[in-house]
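User: Hello, can you help with two protein structures?

Assistant: Certainly.
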Amino acid sequence: MTELDHRVRGVDHVAFPTFDPAATVRFYRDVLGFPVVHSICAVGWGPEDHPDFIHFFFDIGNDDRIAFFYYFGTDPSLGGPDGAKGDVYGRFGADVPEYFVRSRHLAIHVENEEDLLEYRRRLDASDWPVEMQIRHETIESIYTHDPNGYFFEITRAMRPVTPQEDLDANLTIDALLDVVAQPEPSFGKLLARKAELIVERAPGWEPVGSEPAR
């Protein structure tokens, strides 16, 4: 596959609906300290049945933002799980496992453990205390739900990700795409296909620390 040049410079914003703008502002601005940096007041936009709304943005660092839409007069019951419209992953029945529900979340990162613990202190002193603090393979994260029920993560790197791990990630994804294209994909088949790809590609790899041929 031809490698495309990388031109993006991060997240401009991610946006979500809210039925409780007051609590949303308390959580992101007053508890976490993310300043409001922009808002759009929209009257008469769209078709005749489109409600007036405000679209407001919080600065989450690095020129990135998280944004919310509040639609005036919209019934909060429209946010239930049984609707027939919208993102299929935004509607969950009672039988959906919790791990699947929680896989949909927003994660933002901080520089170090001190910053992570400061945000833990702020959250624990609020109406939205930290629900979990977990050390993963290369990161440590705290988790809670924001006032809208969105799962929210703040994370910090415990060590840099190495070039070897980037190579491993690409092998894993290539193996995954091959396996899910076949009947009955499984984790065992993923590992087997990844091993095959390593054997196929290893002769072309440069030894660690070697100088490229001139």
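That covers the first. Now for the second protein you mentioned:
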Amino acid sequence: MVPNGTEVQVRPGTEADLDALTALYNHYVTETAITFDLTPFTPVERRPWLLSHPEDGPHRLLVATDTDSRRVLGYATSGPHRPKAAYAPSVETSVYVAPDATGRGVGTLLYGALFAALAEEDVHRAFAGITQPNEASVKLHERFGFRHLGTFGEVGRKFGRYWDVAWYQKDLDAD
């Protein structure tokens, strides 16, 4: 349950979620610099991304839905940090929340479930890149134990301007 009383279910993403996940992501593509994709995706184009996140293993896709309406409120992922084999124990994480569901604890629920799942996997570090400014995302990541590593200055260009990306790290097997 999120603070406004909405019952929320967090579960693995499925192909049935593809249209809703694509629409949610496309909002961030067209309206924000949170992602550096410049062109919206079709569900067909986004399908390989969805299929690259099985229900188990280090690369997950978790979806939060309203239990009454079954509407997708957000999703969190972990995926490869880099393609070379030695990077396998590291993942890059992200969370996207529907614009009308932000600030209600959906991101916290998603990340809580994602890191609980990753605790059972052979994952050593999680990394997250956060386009600046994005105070809400920085606070969420810090709440989950991420620490700031550094900032790539003006690393991406979108909407006619350059954007910085701050990089964060979470130690997953620090115990």
